[in-house]
Specification:
By secondary structure, this protein is of the alpha/beta class. Helix content is about 40%, strand content about 15%. The chain has two domains: about 90 residues, Rhodanese-like domain (Oxidized Rhodanese, domain 1, 3-Layer(aba) Sandwich), CATH 3.40.250; about 35 residues, no CATH class. It has seven helices and six strands, in the order ββαβαβαβαβααα. Strand 4, helix 3 and strand 5 form a beta-alpha-beta unit. About 25% of the residues are buried.
Length: about 130
């Protein structure tokens, strides 16, 4: 959940990862935020930077995190779009086909595997 070594960031919506995500960030969709934030930021004082495509999503995520006791939560002004336009670190995942999405759908839910692990498991391998 890191945008840099000293801070954390979480994506508040899935749409942020569809066209890329901040390099080094642990992207947690808004629907899973309360369930997964403890793994990415176990201490309530960990700095968390929220970003998304829609302006309202980080506000709802910030409220949920404050309700959970997180005290160092901020919203990235301009969101992911301004970050990317500024030339800062962005990672773009290669999209999975519909067959791969169906085949690996259960893996996406496991924090130990997630989308990156599933994508690497279906990548072509050399002998």
């Amino acid at each position: 959940m890191r945008a840099s070594r000293s801070s954390s960031s979480t994506s508040a919506t899935r749409t942020s990862t569809a066209t890329g995500s901040i390099e080094g960030a642990a992207n947690i969709s808004r629907g899973f935020l309360e369930f997964r934030v403890g793994t990415a930021a176990p201490e309530p004082t960990t700095p968390i930077v929220l970003y998304a495509r829609r302006a309202c999503a980080p506000c709802f995520a910030a409220k949920a995190l404050h309700d959970l006791g997180y005290t160092n939560v901020v919203n990235l002004q301009g969101g992911f779009q301004r970050w990317a336009q500024s030339g800062l670190g962005v990672v773009k995942d290669s999209p999975l086909g519909s067959e791969q999405i169906q085949r690996y759908s259960r893996h996406f839910l496991l924090p130990q595997v997630g989308r990156k692990g599933s994508a690497s498991s279906c990548a072509p391998r050399c002998c």
